[in-house]
Amino acid sequence: MLKVESLTKQYGSKQVLADVSFQVNPGDIVGLVGENGAGKSTLLTILATLIQPEQGMITYHDLAYKTDQRKLRQKIGYVPQNIAIWEEFSVEENMVFFEQLSWGKKSREQLRQLCLDMKLDQWKEKAQSLSGGMKRKLNLAISLIHEPELLLLDEPTVGIDLKSRKEIGTYLQQLAKQQGKTIIYTSHDMEEIISLCDYVYCIGNDPFYKELLKEKGQHIHVL
Ligand SMILES: Nc1ncnc2c1ncn2[C@@H]1O[C@H](COP(=O)(O)OP(=O)(O)O)[C@@H](O)[C@H]1O
Ligand SMILES: [Mg+2]
Q1: Interior angle at CA 117, CA 114 and CA 122, nearest 5
Q2: Does the beta carbon of 39 lie inside 6 Å of ligand 1?
Q3: Which of 96, 31, 20, 78 shows the shortest CA–CA distance to 54?
Q4: Each residue of 148-190: pLDDT tens digit?
Q5: For residue 139, which of 187, 191, 91 has the smallest C-alpha distance?
Q6: DSSP 115-150
Q7: Which atom of ligand 1 is found nearest the CA of 35?
Q8: Does the CB atom of residue 133 touch ligand 1 within 6 A?
Q9: Is residue 9 lining ligand 1, measured as CB closer than 6 Å?
Q10: For residues 153 and 173, what is the distance between their CA atoms, to the nearest angstrom?
Q11: Which atom number of ligand 1 is nearest to the Cα of residue 44?
């Protein structure tokens, strides 16, 4: 279980996260919503161990974020809001490159299968020639090479075609429900959040999101 207690984060004098506490169980898909600038990316970056909060305690099972960063990183897969792939490399070269940096050891065939699992089949094509949706899939595939348990995805489906969005959604559901992975992801697409997530956390007490999700019968917790 991921447990976040009394987290605060500020940039200079600007408070972004104020006393945030929540828990996520294994196998859950959690949607993180909130208006632009609410602190969604900041929270995911903290959970990815890449920046530190001012206060608060985070634990994942028996690992503490303050002391067990190395071990935690092996369990975490993080896809940032801005795509991070090598544009001039092929899909295959990207996968092999990141496999060599990762803890996990995977054969080319396993790497290829990982891409195929989410319907990314342009193995020999350069990343720069892929559609936005396919690039997102590649980024997601890269984040899964070391078989992380906890997946942190920052707007994995923003600005991509409906087909890729559905395929990514289906794949995320498989990861959570069949492989027991814990997934926290941000999105502005409420329909998608409603169809995919077990529950929703909203940063900031914005009545807009509360009303919208309540209407649809979705649970929302305000952070
Ligand atoms: N590295 C940074 N330095 C200073 N301010 C930042 C930094 N990163 C984010 N912010 C500010 O923190 C707030 C939250 O940003 P962010 O976490 O990106 O929100 P969201 O992802 O919900 O849009 C915004 O006001 C943003 O300008
Ligand atoms: Mg963001």
Answers
A1: 75
A2: yes
A3: 20
A4: 999 999 999 888 889 999 999 999 999 999 999 999 999 988 8
A5: 91
A6: HHHTT---TTSBGGGS-HHHHHHHHHHHHTTT--SE
A7: 22
A8: no
A9: no
A10: 13
A11: 17
CATH code for the domain in which residue 102 is found: 3.40.50.300
Substitution candidate for ligand 1 out of 10, 15, 41, 50 with most atoms within 8 A of CB:
41
Helix 132-143, helix 108-117: angle, nearest 10? 130
Q: Work out how many domains the chain is built from and give that number.
A: 1
What does the block give as tokens for 40? Answer: 């969604």
Residue written as token pair 């649970």 = 219
Does 37 score more than 80 pLDDT? yes
DSSP symbol at 89: S
Model confidence pLDDT, tens digit, residues 121-147: 999 999 999 999 999 999 999 999 999
Residue 19 structural domain: 2-222
HSE-up of residue 93 (Cα within 13 Å, Cβ side):
11
Query: Hunting for tokens 């004098």 — which residue is that?
Result: 13
Partners of residue 78 on adjacent β-strands: 152
CA-based nearest residue to 82, from 12, 139, 3: 139
| Res 120: pLDDT | 95
